[in-house]
Amino acid sequence: MKAGKKLAVTPEAGTLTVERLVKRVVKGQVRIPAFQRPLQWGAIQVVALFDSIYKGYPIGSLLLQKRAAPAELLSIGPLTIQAPDTPDAFWVVDGQQRLISLAAGLARKLPVPEKPIDAYVVYFDAQNQTFASPPYNGSVPSTWVPVAQLFDSAVLSEWVYGWQHVHDAELRGAVFEAGQRLREYNVPLYTIETEDEEVLRDIFNRTNTYGKKMSWPDVHAALFGNKGKYPSTLPQLAEALEAEKMGSPTLRNLLTYVMASRGLDASRTLAEHERRGDEAMVKMEDAVHDALPVIVRALNFLRQEAEIPHVKLLPLALPMAVLTRYFSLFPHPSERSLELLTRWTWRVLLGGALFDERTILRHGVLTLEDGNDEMQAQKLLRLIPHELPGQLRYALPTRFDARAAESRLALLGMYSLQPLLDTGEPVDLAELLASRKKAGLRTIIPAKASRSELMTSPANRMLLPGTQPTNEQQDLFEEDEEGQYQRGISYEQLRQLNYADNKKFLASHAIDEPAFAALQQGDAETFLQRRRNIVQTAVRNLGDRLAAWGQPDRVSIDQIVAKTLQAE
């Protein structure tokens, strides 16, 4: 903060009981801003907070900013609150995690779950006078009382007299005392009225001391991200990318890409940049909004040039960060530049053992600068090896994990074979992954049919859509409880096909004639070995073609001519 800069109004110090504070949250009078990344506190921290209040320990003060708030539907843990518009709401600048934990724990609807479905399911153990999350098996001791039951004294009194331990005076007294301690605990708070973000940041940095610290960039984005253009927050950016049907990276990765687009070292956090005096927040002004077209260009490049149709199939996040920086500088690079970028992308994906990802991320972003797009692409190529040692050639993993780079490479290899539906139409993987109605991947041989070690490998996976999984929350790459989907071509139907009539369909799924013969004979081991080799070869061929290992990365004729003309 600049010397001599003061608040127009002195911060107002005061206290509120937990009961009054939580009720104000429920009424929408206290607003907890929506954060761009998940809440940091887990069950351990939430339980510790209730224990501290019960014991009368200090939990730190809250810092509130008084300003107007619109009517909106708020989501706070398990709570949904229809908040009215108000000219003088209190926005939480410091203390979000504490207040969310208190509101979500105490004001949640009864009955409270008997399993730890979220971090805010907290019980008071009346026998030991302690707090705990319920066990995973849902076997809650009869002497445990949910903290939400303690929040309203009248409701608690009525509940206790129907409790099976009502005649145990000691337990009954412990429950009433716990409720009183929680409700009447005084939380210190400071209220400020200022729109000066520099002042607000300085106060936050000096007072943010309790528990797991939030960074100022997190708080700033949550408080002010909704001002101005759309998208202006990371969740809005993710939403906008979903609308493009290219897939949306995680919020953490999106933040990395946004930072990279501004030329910041994406291997560091925003908070680290702030401490280093890098003027990160100045550079990040409107960065989320400006990043949308840049990220779309990078995703289009991956799909059209690098043959990666969807962000869910991107083996590593690293290339996207550097590509985002590149396309922020060069929205329309030349064909030669696109070719060089494709080589760089695939050399990074296949040669990860040859370099440190964090180092390449840092140098890849920082080495790029305004100038000639082709020369900048060549600078990226000089950061990584030009050739791939034979011992590092791609090998199909023994276990499929849709989050792992090797498994995603296997899927890209399968996709390079141009998989077909059983109708003969091509599988539109990008559309499939963008859809919530179908599953994009399935096992071929059911678990009960073989004990081969390859049963869990990508060799036993097929890029062929089925219907929506039984659990709608499952990832599109996960199978249902039976390991198969209910519709689409099944294992038995696959075995009954006539090879001659379906040769093209089978070949598009890495099943040649020897593999199909083994499948029909029930020889799972031979089938999976054969298919493993085909998929592995497909990945190697794809990588060799696009990475162009050992090929000259020299400048194009156009660049040579341009340089010659400049020299003249």
From TrEMBL:
Name used for this protein in its record: DUF262 domain-containing protein
Residues of the GmrSD restriction endonucleases N-terminal domain: 21-222
Organism name: Hymenobacter aquaticus
InterPro entries: GmrSD_N
Stored Pfam families: GmrSD_N
